[in-house]
Design a protein that fits this description.
Layout: H1 4-31, H2 43-55, H3 63-94, H4 96-110, H5 118-125, H6 130-141
Helix pairs in contact: 3-4, 3-6, 5-6
Length: 144
């Protein structure tokens, strides 16, 4: 236990080195224009734009309002997945006959990527909160 602080300090140092290396590579790649500026702006331009988005509305809202809306959709989708998935999982464990019925459906749907459900979500629930919530629900619901 007495060596833990040294190991922790070493991990912090390696993390800082990695972070500095990331920003150095980003900065020099942007200066050298290895990637067009529209795809890889300078780091200070990103920070400036971030500050601007926290003060000036974009699409009617500032950044933290957009983030709150996204977090709300995530929480709703995750909550619904837990609300439906946990009881179904428990019942599948208790009742073998239910597992025999439901498992083939889950096995068939498991290999469809959640992003493939986007067109269906948009058709069924529109592009408001319902579609993204369905995608999150689908991504969190299926068994691993």
């Amino acid at each position: 236990m007495r060596f833990a602080p040294k190991r922790l300090q070493g991990n912090i140092n390696l993390s800082l080195i990695g972070l500095l290396a990331f920003f150095a590579i980003w900065y020099f790649a942007a200066i050298a224009q290895l990637i067009p500026k529209q795809f890889l702006p300078m780091p200070h331009e990103v920070v400036t734009k971030l500050i601007d988005l926290t003060q000036n509305p974009f699409a009617g809202h500032v950044l933290h309002e957009h983030m709150a809306s996204s977090l709300q959709r995530f929480a709703l989708g995750f909550g619904l997945a837990a609300l439906v998935g946990v009881p179904i999982g428990l019942m599948m464990g208790w009742f073998g006959w239910l597992d025999d019925i439901v498992s083939p459906l889950f096995d068939g749907l498991r290999f469809i990527a959640p992003v493939a459900w986007v067109p269906f979500a948009a058709l069924w629930f529109g592009t408001g909160a319902g579609g993204p919530t369905l995608i999150i629900l689908r991504a969190r619901f299926h068994p691993a």
